[in-house]
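SAMPLE LOG
Freezer: B-3
Tube label: C17
Construct: single chain, 68 aa
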Amino acid sequence: MTRESDAASNAGSQAEVDIAERRSLQRWSAALGVTAEALESAVRAVGPRVDRIKDYLAGGMAGKQEDG
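STRUCTURE (predicted):
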């Protein structure tokens, strides 16, 4: 397993995603099972921590940001 996949499978992981580096972005998007664009959007919304990104992608924080 890679560092990224280990962190992606750990619900409380506080590892940080570096979206500035293309290879890192590709590894993290594969580990999290999302597109690079979705991952970039999540990092811009909640920051680079994997636990927060996973919550956002799962709808936890995304739902709180919707209007209406």
